[in-house]
Amino acid sequence: MHLAGRDFPVTEVPILDRKETPSEYRLEDGTILRFSAPVTVVYRIDDQWDGEGNPLYLVKNGASINVVEAGDAVKKK
After folding, report:
1. Global pTM?
2. Spatial contact of 76 and 32, defined as CB atoms under 8 Å apart
3. Residue 19 class from Cβ within 10 Å (0-12 exposed, 13-18 middle, 19+ buried)?
4. For the chain, domain boundaries
5. Residue 57 gets which letter from DSSP?
6. Nearest 10 degrees: CA dihedral of 48, 51, 57, 58?
């Protein structure tokens, strides 16, 4: 994988299970948004570890934004 001007050998690690807890944001206009960034692919960088000996990972992710409730002032009548 090419990252920050260097090539790193990586191993794709299959995702076996996923538990997401979306974040909710209450906006000034009364709207409530729910946001999550689901991971689609996980790569372990071969032969690279952090200071505690844990392997380093890269993830590819998307974004999901849902309007839970629109504020009265911005909702189309």
Report:
1. 0.70
2. no
3. exposed
4. 2-69
5. E
6. -100
User: In angstroms, rounded to a whole number, what is the distance separating the alpha carbons of residues 53 and 37?
Assistant: 27
Neighbour-count burial of 33, counting CB atoms closer than 10 A to its CB (0-12 exposed, 13-18 middle, 19+ buried): middle
* Residue-level pLDDT, tens digit, the chain, 77 residues: 888 888 989 999 999 998 888 899 999 999 999 999 999 999 999 999 999 999 999 999 999 999 999 998 898 88
| 39 in Cβ contact with 61 (< 8 Å) | yes
Spatial contact of 40 and 69, defined as CB atoms under 8 Å apart? no
pLDDT for res 20:
83
- For residue 65, the one-letter residue type is I
Cα dihedral 11→55→50→54 (10° resolution): 180
Backbone angles phi, psi at 28, to 5 degrees: -60, -30
